[in-house]
Specification:
Layout: H1 8-17, H2 22-36, H3 52-55, H4 61-75
Helix pairs in contact: 1-2, 1-4, 2-4
Length: about 80
């Protein structure tokens, strides 16, 4: 799974939840993306070059994109 503050933090839980349906996958992706905003540092990806002061409270853009995409698919 993720925990690196990347899109994988949303994608991995979404893929694990997918057998339970698209809605479950979207909810898992959202939880994963939201969790990145609480991570104090990034271990991979572009965010690894940003200081922790600028990361605080902001979700990883890649994780946010995955969650938003799956939420849109689930709503459609």
């Amino acid at each position: 799974s993720g925990r690196d503050r990347t899109m994988i933090d949303a994608l991995a839980p979404a893929l694990e939840a997918l057998p339970r349906g698209l809605d479950a996958a979207a909810k898992a992706a959202r939880a994963g993306a939201d969790a990145t905003a609480r991570m104090k540092s990034a271990r991979a990806g572009r965010s690894s070059h940003v200081s922790s002061a600028h990361l605080a409270g902001t979700a990883d853009p890649g994780a946010e994109a995955v969650a938003t995409l799956l939420e849109g698919l689930a709503a459609g």
